[in-house]
Amino acid sequence: MSKLLEIFLDFFKEFSEKYLPAISRLIRHVLDWKAFAFSWVAHYSRQFGMQAIISVGVIASLYAGYQFSMRTLSPESPKPSHDVILKSRFSSPLPSSNIIIVDIDERSLALLSEKHGRWPWSRDVLADGLQKLADLEAKSILFNVMLSDPDKNNADADAAMDVTAQLVRPIAFPIIRLAPQNDSASQLKAAQIPGAVIQKPEAQDKTLAAVIPMFGSMHDRLGVVNQKPDADGIVRKYPLRWQESGYVLPSIVARTVDNAGQPLTGLPDSLSLNWRNKQGKYTRMSFGDLQLDQLSEAQKAQLKNAYIVLSASAPGVGQTKATGVSALEDDGEILATALDDTLHGTYLRTMPNWLVLLLNLGIIWGLVWLTTTNAVSATANKLFVLIQSGLGVVTLVSASYTNYLIDLSDSMSFGIALFGVIKLVQSLDDRWSRAKPGFRKIRRKHGAASLVLLGWLDGKISHLDAQQLQRAIEIEVGMPQVARVDDLFAGESFVKSHCSKYKCLLVHVNVRHEEKLNAILNDPRFAAILRKTHALQSDWDTESKAFASEVAPLILNMGADLLHEAWMNSLPK
Q1: Model confidence over 396-449: pLDDT tens digits?
Q2: What is the residue range of 294's domain?
Q3: Contacts of residue 160, Cβ cutoff 8 Å, sequence gap at least 6
Q4: How many Cβ atoms from other residues are within 10 Å of residue 142's Cβ?
Q5: How far apart are the first and last CA of the chain?
Q6: DSSP letter at 560?
Q7: Which of 98, 118, 165, 492 could cross-link with 217 by S-S, CB 3.0 to 4.6 Å?
Q8: Do the domain assignments include residue 33?
Q9: Do 386 and 494 lie in a common domain?
C-alpha cells in the first residue's frame, strides 16, 4: 500500500510541475481571448456602429417586404398574432339573441332513445322538428344535417321529410364539396346547382364532386357547408361565397340569409370571423326538448322570427374544429358566428397589406433616423416605450370594441428588434468610449506623450455638441487616443446632483496633433471647456493600473476646479 501511495505522489508531483502551469496558461489565454473578442466588437461598434444600424435597417426592410409579398401572394396563410390578440382582447361582440342553435346534443340522444332508438333516427323525427320550428315562426333555418341516402327500413319517414322540405320554405340544406381531384368521376354539373354563378363559359359543363341531399325538394335551397381552415388547420375565416375556377356557389350561411329575404350586398366573399369569445356563447336549445314539446314559453317566444342553426354536437354525431380562440369548437357555434357576422356586418376588417408594410417601414427608418441624429437618449427611450405601448393599446382596443382588427404587432416586433440592436451597439460604443476595463484590450499601449484633459459641466455644452466634439477629436488623433469620463459619481450622497454634472475627455496627443486640436476647440460652442495639459509619466494604457493612478487625481482636480468656479459664479455679487 505504501509503495502505491509513493508512486501516486511521485506522479502527482510530476504532473503538477509539468502540466499545471501549461493548463493555467491555457486558461488565461482563453480568458484573454474572450476579453479580446469583447474589445474588438466594442472597438468596431464605436467605429462602424452607425453603418451597422443602417445595415440592420436595410435587412429589416427587406424582411418586411418579404412578409408583404407572402401575404399578398398567399392571403390564406394565417397570421398567428391574430389569435393571440383575439384571445387577449378585453371584450368582443355580443352573440345575437336572434340566432339560436337547436342542438342534437347528448341530452337529445338520451331523451329520444327510448322512442326512436339510437342515432341516426328515422327522417320523420327530423321532419317533425323542422315543422315545429316552422310552427313557432322561425324566420330561417340552417339545416346542418346531410341526408344523402334513402332509409331502406322506413320509406314513409323519407316521404315525410320530402313533404316537409317542400312545405317549409325558409330552410337551407347542405351540399358537401368533395376533393376536386374527384371531379372527373362526377356527373353533377356546377350549372345544375340553383344559385350557382357561372363566371366563365367553359365552366358551364364543368362537373364537380359533391354530396347532395337525396330529396329533390331540397335542391333549390342548397348551400356549401364546407369550411376553409387555414394552412395550419385552424378555422379563422368563413367562405360566404364558395369560389372555384369559373363558378361561384352560395354557402349554406348565404343561402340561410337569402331565404329570409335579407340582402347580401357589400359583403366580402370570405369573412374573417369575429368570435364572441368574451361575451359567452349563442343560445342553445336541445332538439330533444323541441321534439318532446318540453320548451318553456320563454324559449318558444325566443324562436319566433329567429335564425335557427340546426346542428349536432353530440360525440360521434357532430364535428369539432380548432378555431383562432378555441382548441375545439362544434360546427353549430362556427356557423352561428358566420351567420351573425353576415347579418350584422360584425366580421373583422383587417388592415390592407400595403398599409402594414408602410407602418413597418416607418417604424424601422424612424428609429434609424433617430440614431443618425444622435437622438436616442433617455427622453427618446421613454418616447419609444410610449409609442410601443400605444401600438399595443390601439391593437387591443380596436379588436375589443370595434369590428376592425388593427394589428400593429409586426410594427411592434420590428421596433423592439431594431431598438435592441441600437441599444446593443450604443452599449458597446459607450464601453469603448469610457474605456471600461476589459474593453480596450486591442491597441492598448502607446508611448508616453502629452495628456490633454477637457472638462465641462452639464448645461455649458449640450449632449449633442459633446458627442460631436468627441467624434471630431477621434478623427484627428485616432479613436484609441480618446477616453470619456462621465460616470465618476454614483450613490446617494447629497452632493451627487452637483458632482455628476462633471464630464471630461482624456486626449493622448503628440506635437503634430496640437494645431488640429486647437482648431477644434476654437469653435464657440466649446468656449466653456476647461483645458489642462499634463506630461504623462506612464504609457497611455487605459487597462493599466499605473496609468489610472496617474490620471485619477488630475481628473478629480479638474472637476473640483469646475465645481468651485460654478459655485463662485452663483454667489451674489
Answers
A1: 999 999 999 999 999 999 999 988 888 888 888 888 788 888 777 765 556 667
A2: 94-345
A3: 123, 124, 127, 128
A4: 29
A5: 93
A6: H
A7: 165
A8: yes
A9: no
The answer to whether 530 and 461 are in contact (CB under 8 A) is no
Interatomic CA distance for residues 96 and 339, integer angstroms? 10
Q: How far is CA 14 from CA 17, 19, 24, 105, 217, in A?
A: 5, 8, 16, 84, 102
Same domain, 242 and 328: yes
> How much is the CA Rg of the chain, to the nearest whole Å?
39
Pairing relationship of beta strands 270-272 and 320-321 according to DSSP bridges: unpaired
Q: What would the grid cell of residue 280 be?
A: 359567452
Joined grid coordinates for residue 422: 441600437
Instruction: For strands 99-104 and 283-286, give the pairing.
Output: parallel
Q: What CATH number does the domain containing 481 carry? A: 3.30.70.120
Structural domains of the chain, count: 3
User: Are the beta carbons of 443 and 535 closer than 8 angstroms?
Assistant: no
51 lies in the same domain as 145 = no
3-state secondary structure 500-523: CCEEEEEEEECHHHHHHHHHHHCC
Cis peptide bond N-terminal to 437, omega within 30:
no
Query: Alpha helices of 104-213 — where are they, by DSSP H?
Result: 106-116, 123-135, 155-167
pTM: 0.77
Match 353533377 to its residue by C-alpha cell. 188
pLDDT in tens, 43-92: 666 777 778 888 889 999 999 999 899 888 877 677 778 999 999 999 99
DSSP letter for each residue of 85-126: HHHH-S--PPPPTTEEEEEE-HHHHHHHHHHH-SSSPPHHHH
Q: Which amino acid is at 47?
A: Q
- CB-CB contact of 350 with 402 (8 Å): no
pLDDT at 14: 61
Cell numbers that stand for 446 in this block: 502607446
Residue type, 434: R
Backbone angles phi, psi at 448, to 5 degrees: -65, 140
Beta-carbon count within 10 A of 335 CB: 25
Instruction: Give CA–CA dist 285/103, Å, rounded.
Output: 6
Which of 353, 246, 293 is CA-nearest to residue 112? 293
Dihedral class, residue 435 (left if φ above 0, else alpha if ψ from -120 to 50, else beta): left
- Grid coordinates representing 4 are 502505491
Helix residue ranges, H only, 407-486? 409-433, 463-477
Nearest to 283 by CA among 319, 308, 260: 308
